[in-house]
Every structure is written in C-alpha cells, then in structure tokens.
C-alpha cells in the first residue's frame, strides 16, 4: 500500500515505505526467508541513503540501523565481504551519532562492533575481530 502512495506522493510516504520494508525484512528473516529478507533490507538501505543525503542529521540514525540489519542479513547468507563492508559503514555512522548522544547510541554501537567482530572472524581476520570485540567489551563495562 505504501508503495502505491509513495509513487503518487513520495515526499509524504517514502519514509513510511522504508519503515514498512524494514519491518518486512524482520518478518522474513524470522521466518528463515533470507533471500527475500535481503531484498527488503537492501531496498530499505537504498531509501535511507537518499534520506540521509537530503537530511543527514535526521536520517543517519535510521541509515546506520538499516546498514547494521543489512550486514546481519549478508552474514546469514554467508556473504561475508559484503557483511563486513556494510558493518563498517554502519559503525562509521554510529561513531558520529555516539558523539552527540552517547546514552542513546552506545548500546547499538556495541552491537555493531559485535557484528563487525563476527564478520572479521568469518573472513579469518582474527586480530581485527579481537580488536572490535575488545572495544565492545570496554564499552559494555563502562555503560552497564
């Protein structure tokens, strides 16, 4: 439904469409429909990238989350290089977000570090994996 509305009035409905696609990704992933989930989260990221270009302050949070979800989905499908690249992009955005609102974004930042560590491990980059895990553990000790 949002796709039809977004075609007629993109400014009014594209954000709702992106949110719906993200929700679809979650449902498909939970059902084990990983290829279909990948398509949904890729579309979400594409839309969020456009929003972030137009309004970075308002949209980088959603883009960072969507990139994290995309990285996880790539990992599910053993696309480890893509997962790593996407996790690194998400992490870069969260590093900036943490500077402005640490209490809000540090928990997700830690999750992305964990994802990054898993990506490095899957690719056999054990030193990089340990470094990401260590940073996540240090933050966990500090905030929890």
List the helices and strands and how they pair.
Elements: H1 2-8, H2 10-30, H3 34-54, H4 56-76, H5 80-100, H6 102-122, H7 126-143
Helix pairs in contact: 1-2, 2-3, 3-4, 4-5, 4-6, 5-6, 6-7
In short:
The chain has helices spanning 2-8, 10-30, 34-54, 56-76, 80-100, 102-122, 126-143.
Q: Keywords, please?
A:
TPR-like_helical_dom_sf; 144 residues; globular; Serine Threonine Protein Phosphatase 5, Tetratricopeptide repeat; 90% helix; mainly alpha; 0% strand; single chain; Tetratricopeptide repeat protein
What is the rounded Rg? 16 Å
* CA(first)-CA(last) distance: 42 Å
CATH level-1 class = Mainly Alpha
Which structural class best describes the helix and strand composition? mainly alpha
How would you sum up the global shape? Answer: globular
- In CATH, the topology is named Serine Threonine Protein Phosphatase 5, Tetratricopeptide repeat
Range of helix content: over 70%
pLDDT < 50 stretches: none
* Helix and strand pattern: HHHHHHH
CATH-level-4 superfamily name: Tetratricopeptide repeat domain
């Amino acid at each position: 439904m949002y796709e039809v509305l977004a075609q007629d009035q993109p400014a009014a409905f594209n954000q709702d469409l992106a949110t719906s696609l993200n929700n679809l990704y979650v449902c498909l992933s939970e059902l084990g429909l990983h290829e279909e989930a990948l398509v949904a989260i890729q579309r979400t990221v594409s839309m969020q990238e456009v929003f972030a270009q137009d309004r970075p302050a308002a949209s980088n949070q959603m883009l960072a989350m969507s990139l994290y979800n995309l990285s996880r989905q790539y990992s599910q499908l053993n696309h480890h290089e893509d997962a790593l690249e996407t996790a690194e992009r998400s992490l870069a955005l969260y590093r900036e977000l943490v500077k402005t609102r640490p209490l809000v974004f540090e928990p997700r930042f830690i999750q992305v570090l964990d994802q990054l560590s898993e990506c490095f491990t899957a690719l056999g980059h054990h030193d990089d994996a340990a470094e990401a895990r260590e940073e996540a553990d240090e933050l966990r000790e500090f905030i929890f």
